[in-house]
Amino acid sequence: MRVALVSESFLPQVNGVTNTVRHVVDRLVATGHQALVVAPGPGPDHYGPTPVVRVRSATLPGYRSFALGLPDRRVGTALAGFRPDLVHLASPVSLGACGLRAARRLGVPALAVYQTDLAGFAHRYGVPVGGLLDAWVGGLHRRADRTLVPSAASRAQLAALGVGGLHLWGRGVELALFDPRHRSDDLHARWAAGPGTGERVVVGYVGRLAAEKNLHRLAEVSRIPGVDVVVVGDGPLRHRLERLLPAATFTGMLRGPELARAFTSLDVFVHPGEDETFCQTVQEAQASGVPVVAAGAGGPLDLVEHLVTGLLYDPADPRSLRRSVARLAGDPLLRRSLGRAGRAAVQGRTWEALVDRLVTEHYLPLARPSVPAGPVRPRRAA
């Protein structure tokens, strides 16, 4: 099968959309399929053996590291040259709209994967365009042949926008990478260096440092006696958070084994965000055997069973987050129980299994055979 993935984000940007596309391409290639990625530039023009066609992009004010794809004729040209059996639209917005139009011109089915709550993000950034964004995103997904959503909350959100044909498709987790065996007592000891003589508890956040993650609430966590805060990641809020949390440890962006070691060396993982369509880092913490505290809203509702595989705090209660973290900080037996149950809950959620299911349950029922095509020669964005 020939699959063209039109993605709003790809390497070198690192985020949930990029990681999902990367794992989909890895598995497609490993199982004998051919893939093409169309993504905003600049960036590498190949991902392994897979061509990456780079199109025009612009940076967002206040978030210079994020490239927003712009309408570009190269999308249609690339798809016409590749002659896909199916077009996969990864978190479609502006570039996804171009991909959808190109798929329609070619008579090729388009599958859309919903992944980003743009209206929620706009609200967090104080931009009053949520209604317009919902209308745009809803219109894109209504025109796609099928839409995949990562959680029950996302399904309800799109259904309210009049989108039908919704199918639940979650995310995989790298169980060999995120494993409790990678815990480093030395790293934990360096982080647990706060004042006092009692046992210190290391509470950490992992992810992008951006407004939609509600990271200002880590200040509440930092005031819990006996707790040391670690922040793993980077983003536009880093300097502000460093001023807000002067005693916290900021590691910057970590990847691969370093990231896995950081995850499993935490005592508690906390994610304050309320607008997550899925929340992949919750799964990664669970795979690492680390108890989770997450918002009782959005994607975490599908991932965390309260008091079984983690704790869900009430976003409407201003004291709930602190109470939840303090409860775990003071109860090592509960931490151990939730960590073990969280690890057990994600067994079987490998990327290989998730992508195989994507192919058999969604790609194959939609795909149409195509004639052979020559190699795609990607061009960099101007």
TrEMBL record:
Gene Ontology terms: biological process: carbohydrate derivative biosynthetic process
Molecular function via GO: hexosyltransferase activity
The Glycosyl transferase family domain, residue ranges: 199-343
Transferase found in the keyword field: yes
Protein known as: Glycosyltransferase family 1 protein
One Pfam family linked to the record: Glycos_transf_1
Start and end residues of each Glycosyltransferase subfamily 4-like N-terminal domain: 14-176
Keywords for the protein's UniProt record, in alphabetical order: Glycosyltransferase, Transferase
InterPro entries to which the protein is assigned, alphabetical: Glyco_trans_1, Glyco_trans_4-like_N, Glycosyltransferase_grp1
Species per Swiss-Prot/TrEMBL record: Nocardioides panacis
